[in-house]
Amino acid sequence: PGSRNFPVPINPLALNPRTGGPKNLPIAELLLDDVNDEDVKKQKLVILGSGFAAISLAKTLDAGKYHVVLISPSNYFLFTPLLPSATVGTVEPRSIIEPVRKIVNRCLGHYLEASALGVELKDRLVEVVSYHEGKERRFYVPYDKLVISVGAQSNTHGVPGLENCYFLKTLPDAIRMRKRIMGNFEKACLPTTSPKERKKLLSFVVCGAGPTGVEFAAELHDMVKEDLVNFFPKLLRQHLSIHIIQSQDHILNTYDEKISKYAESKFVKEGIDLITNARVKEVQDDRVIYTQKQQNGQIIEKEVEAGAILWSTGLALTPLTHSIVSSIPEQRNKKAIETDSHLRVLGAPSGEVYAIGDCATVQNNISSRLVHLLQSINAADGEDSKVQLSFQQWRNLAERARRKFPQASVHLQRLDKLFLQYDKDNSGTLDMKELEALFNHIDRKLTSLPTTAQRGSQQGKYLGKKLNKLADAQINIDPTQFYDGDLDDTIYKPFDFHNLGSLAYLGDAAAYDSGTGTTFAGGLLAMYLWRSVYWSEQISFRTRCLLAVDWMKRSIWGRDLSKF
Ligand code: FAD
User: Fold this and answer.
1) Which of 27, 56, 389, 538 could form a disulfide with 457, with the two C-beta atoms 3.0–4.6 Å apart?
2) What is the dihedral of CA 545, 527, 204, 277, to 10 degrees?
3) Which residues contact 71 (CB under 8 A, 6 or more apart)?
4) Distance from Cα 56 to the centre of ligand 1, integer Å
5) ipTM of the complex, rounded to two decimals
6) Which H helix or E strand runs over 487?
7) Which are the contacts of 540, defined by CB distance < 8 A and separation ≥ 6?
8) Which parts of the sequence belong to the EF-hand domain (predicted)?
């Protein structure tokens, strides 16, 4: 059913004439439609963000259990896995978005087109800013429960000149890139363009060979092969080049090695230039300067000319996440908001603040799990201080850990190297002290869960189900009955991530990595599998229909090559 079957709240939020909070800002109040006892008892639930995590939470919440307010600068949900397809017109931008209001309506919530600037934990207030018609307004939104799901932003790694790059995180990013690609092709055809300039215009450089960079390169190559060659002069083909710069020795290095190799050989066959073991030093408006490690260990500076540059080299904290992490002393992992296994923010008042999706990480417990495994394979016998672990035992342990915690398998692959690094006296065994140092390293460095849509959605759904139960419990349960006073733990299980594997589009081919050792990479069949998975994962029947039509249009008439 369409969401128009759900009733809408009558009143919008209103600004209270009373100001408050540390910054003395006006406070937004919920004007209840028809105040009754039930309404007064309901808690205010504020959700920050409108991405995978926030939207799967909003979809799972039962209507009317909370006074819900969802705050996000974008009033639509974006299906990011198809963003690379939108950069070349394989799908249209509006086919991969869904208006937030249609989703928030289902739980009778309010939506505010605004951004959260900070959280006052003591006063239970979110500081919010809205920009409309050039005017900035700041106010507080009060909460009883807060869910932070603001995602992450592109990591710049401090490289100078990134203002010359395109990013691929938002829909406007994809639209800008599509316009630039077509613009470069049109300019390359002008009689005023010299051959040298033409070559530069048609050189596309991708910095970062994770799934986003690789999928963009594959989509661009598809577009050239399937459409542009039919409509642009043949001469352009000789000048076209796609380069991928990667800091590691393989592309798609978070996937199984077999998939990396498959993707590499496919790209090499298609003439895509893979520049591995290279670090971007600087980006200029028409070139990327990088250093590359040679086989003899020597580091050489090189450059590649560029008509358009895509920057996709990982994630960093948003300003809001940064301010939260730095204001709570218990937050030790400075790369994301750390939560316990119930997704509650460490250091915030218990049961009031949750964090989910890319902005959050569940407190890493790989090392404690490793210790358990260690005990179970009897590697450690007797007194702790006498524990000795040989390299072979460590490998067995790592192998078991890889099978048991597939979500961490990529990180666990590095365990062999870590053993050697911590075997300070080169004895081939680790004593307890060395093991402790190694486990500390694992806890500090290895994040336990991937930053994917899959995880964000699972966390949103989990939290939605728990909040539904909490709303009932708050009314019906005697607080003295909670085990240790922990209501979350009493009424619901901790969050457990179920890894369904990762997919990557490789241009008329696709790859699947289950994370547990099963991999699949192939041509058309895999591509149709990739498409059908993303089709079924759509948030609404409406976007499913739009996507099906886009794919059909493309196969009949090709991509729309208009630049606007
Ligand atoms: P997001 O989806 O990024 O949403 C964050 C939301 O917070 C946005 O609505 C934003 O507007 C809002 N926001 C930001 N700041 C504030 C603020 N201060 N106040 C209020 N709201 C704010 N994952 C996969 O599993 N499979 C894939 O194939 C895949 N492909 C991808 C391709 C691309 C091009 C990209 C960019 C990502 C891809 N991902 C994929 C990763 C996936 O998109 C993210 O892991 C997922 O979006 C994380 O969900 P989230 O809700 O945490 O954050």
Assistant:
1) 56
2) 140
3) 46, 47, 48, 49, 111, 112, 114, 115, 116, 126, 128, 141
4) 12
5) 0.99
6) helix 487-491
7) 98, 102
8) 410-445
Alpha-carbon gap, residue 127 to 138, rounded angstroms: 7
Output the CA 355–ligand 1 centroid distance in Å: 14
Q: How far is residue 222 CA from its own chain's centroid?
A: 25
pLDDT digits (tens, 9 = 90+) for 472-520: 887 666 656 655 667 888 888 888 888 788 889 998 889 888 776 678 8
Angle at 548 between CA 538 and CA 219, to 5 degrees: 85
- At residue 335's C-alpha, the angle toward residues 334 and 336, to 5°, is 95
Contacts of 541 (CB under 8 A, 6+ apart): none
Fold of the CATH domain 3-73+114-152+317-362+452-491? FAD/NAD(P)-binding domain (3.50.50)
CATH code 1.10.3470 for 366-445? no
Q: Identify the CA nearest to 382 among candidates 434, 428, 432.
A: 432
Domain at 162-315+501-557: CATH code: 3.50.50.100
Residues of the chain with pLDDT under 70: 1-11, 32-37, 364-387, 400-415, 442-449, 475-485, 516-517
Q: Is 115 in the pocket of ligand 1 (CB under 6 A)?
A: yes
Contact indicator for 145, 44 with CB cutoff of 8 Å: yes
**Residue range(s) of every CATH 1.10.238 domain in the chain:** 366-445
Query: Cβ(459) to ligand 1 under 6 A?
Result: no
pTM, entire model: 0.87
| Cα distance between residue 423 and residue 23, in whole Å | 53
Find all residues with CB under 8 Å of 402, minimum gap 6, and list them.
Answer: 409, 412, 413
Does ligand 1 have an atom closer than 6 angstroms to the CB of 361?
Answer: no
Q: What is the pLDDT of residue 185?
A: 94
CA-angle at 313, arms to 502 and 74, nearest 5°: 80
- Using a 6 Å cutoff on CB, does residue 56 contact ligand 1? no
Residue closest by Cα to atom 36 of ligand 1: 169
Q: Is the CB of 510 under 6 A from ligand 1?
A: no
What pairs with residue 142 in β-bridges?
125
Residues of the chain with CATH 3.50.50.100: 162-315+501-557
Long-range CB pairs of 12-16 (<8 Å, 24+ gap) are 12/110, 13/69, 13/110, 13/112, 13/141, 15/139
Q: Is the CB of 168 under 6 A from ligand 1?
A: yes
* pLDDT in the model for residue 317: 94
Instruction: For residue 51, report the distance from its CA to the centre of ligand 1, in Å.
Output: 5
User: Ligand 1 within 6 A of 74 CB?
Assistant: yes
Spatial contact of 400 and 373, defined as CB atoms under 8 Å apart = yes
